[in-house]
Design a protein that fits this description.
YiaA/YiaB family inner membrane protein; 108 residues; elongated; 0% strand; single chain; mainly alpha; transmembrane helix; membrane
Length: 108
Amino acid sequence: MWRGPHPPILVPMSDTPVKQQSTAAFYGQAVASFAVAMIATAVGIYNLQADAWVRAFLAVAVLYLVTSAFTLAKIIRDRQEVGQLVSRVDQARLDKLLSEHDPFEKLG
């Protein structure tokens, strides 16, 4: 009986997707919610009974807050994607090691 090297055992990689798509309804709701919030804030600042410089300051503060929120959301998303990618690479290395391991191989 021929006892050559064993064929590799195929172990599937993790099924965790790297990119996750949101539904069109969720995307639409997020855009609509953002638009309503920005319009309501702009109307509120415009109708505020205060000097023009106070309203301008509040408008700039709101714009700064919005841009900071977008930046923070992007950074959090990027870190999560990197973590998922590193996790997939680690899982692939573990799968390779397990597929090459022969538990019935004689120890030295």
